[in-house]
Amino acid sequence: MTPTDAPIAAILVVEDELLVRMFAVDALEDAGFRVLQAGTAAEALQALQGSPDVRAALIDIGLPDRPGQQLAAEIRALRADLPIVIASGRSGRELRELFAGDQRVTVLVKPYTASLLLDALAAVGVATAS
Predict the structure, then answer these.
(1) Residue 105's Cα: distance from chain center in Å?
(2) How far apart, in Å, do the first and last CA atoms of the chain sit?
(3) In this structure, CATH architecture of domain 8-123
């Protein structure tokens, strides 16, 4: 397999607010990633189980079916090494403290820019695909 034949890295975006999710998807696709989308924690777990090529997850803290930090713990149980970016409209301090022991988790405060999203992924070891 040549480098141009390598599969495109996938990012799982878990966000129930459609406009925010569309923004994140566009930013990630522009950076060269393939994006899987979910609006609930249940959809996210289903997508993750069917896609071993997912390289990171972007998780909204306020999901309709359970808190994002609970989903992060469930994802961690399935894929201990998966980088996770937690997105929240609240102050990131409390969340940073909650995940302080996990170097594969970072917090991204909303509203964010495409650049901040890519920086958050880089902080957990996921470089842009392009």
Answers:
(1) 9
(2) 18
(3) 3-Layer(aba) Sandwich (3.40)
Put simply, whether the predicted model's pTM sits higher than 0.90 gets the answer: yes
Tokens at 102, concatenated: 């996990």
Amino acid identity of residue 57, one-letter, is A
Tens of pLDDT, residues 28-64: 999 999 999 999 999 999 999 989 999 999 999 999 9
Rounded Cα distance, 19 and 13, in Å: 12
Instruction: List the structure tokens of 81.
Output: 């090494």
DSSP 25-64: HHHHHHTT-EEEEESSHHHHHHHHHT-TTEEEEEEESB-S
To which residue do tokens 């970016």 refer? 85
> Which residues pair with residue 60 across a beta bridge?
87
pLDDT at position 91: 73
Q: Which amino acid is at 35?
A: V
Q: Which residues of the chain have pLDDT under 70?
A: 1-7, 129-130
The answer to whether residues 44 and 38 touch, using CB atoms and an 8 Å cutoff, is: yes
